[in-house]
What we know:
This protein is an alpha/beta fold.
Amino acid sequence: xxxxxxxxxxxxxxxxxxxxxxxxxxxxxxxxxxxxxxxxxxxxxxxxxxxxxxxxxxxxxxxxxxxxxxxxxxxxxxxxxxxxxxxxxxxxxxxxxxxxxxxxxxxxxxxxxxxxxxxxxxxxxxxxxxxxxxxxxxxxxxxxxxxxxxxxxxxxxxxxxxxxxxxxxxxxxxxxxxxxxxxxxxxxxxxxxxxxxxxxxxxxxxxxxxxxxxxxxxxxxxxxxxxxxxxxxxxxxxxxxxxxxxxxxxxxxxxxxxxxxxxxxxxxxxxxxxxxxxxxxxxxxxxxxxxxxxxxxxxxxxxxxxxxxxxxxxxxxxxxxxxxxxxxxxxxxxxxxxxxxxxxxxxxxxxxxxxxxxxxxxxxxxxxxxxx
Length: 372
């Protein structure tokens, strides 16, 4: 069975998350998006597990897999996938002596190394890997030069690419050979512009959390999909204050301090991945560069936000006509899309044909795009 999955989201209990990050809204948005497997997010939080409890007994059409993100003592973020909420409760008890805010936030800080956290996860039959591995903050490659330096003797079960990278960024890093790449949204809002903005395709034998864990272990990923890397806010090396972009040599010559305003220059994901890529690229599943339908509609209608009434109305028409967003973006013929809106159809055809002009992001500011 082939399904699309987004295993990294957050809840209403996480910092900077929408109050609308609630089970019903997440399930509804997943169905509209075309996501068949959704990570619960924040599964170490008692209140969040309680909110999910009633929904897990219902046939919602979306498989919910217990997941959580934690920050270790080196400020590296890890994505954790477990087979049940009972296992999440067990992990919570194991980590509680090392985490002051475990009951207060969805993404806790744990005063343990990556290796120690991974050992606890593996003891429960779960999976662990670095979240948004290449970003210059709170990531594996911000703090270490290799997975082994972070996880020690514990295996790395997968690597999450993050919004500023695609599969090509990690394909030539020798230590990642054989490690599955996952693309996830890291959504803090249930809006389809955020939820499922990155996702991956996975072949599962059974539609259960255990089936998903087994498939990731086997590397049964058939597709990664998400942003053009240039759209990510840390793709290029840039000043974190004025966002001026630099080459690596230029940043080093400026001693990583912007000559214009004194702001800190942040090394971009593209440059960091290039530094680490010392081997031959390994074969990876295809990576599909997509743009959320809401953002496409916003550009075509020249609106300030995809949340405007006109953008929402047109989005709803596409979903009502064709079923879900992923289908609209990837499968429906352009001539059929044009029956709903010709401008949006032409824009979707443009990004399907890679006729998109990108302005790379960096320093904490997202990149942008135009069509035609």
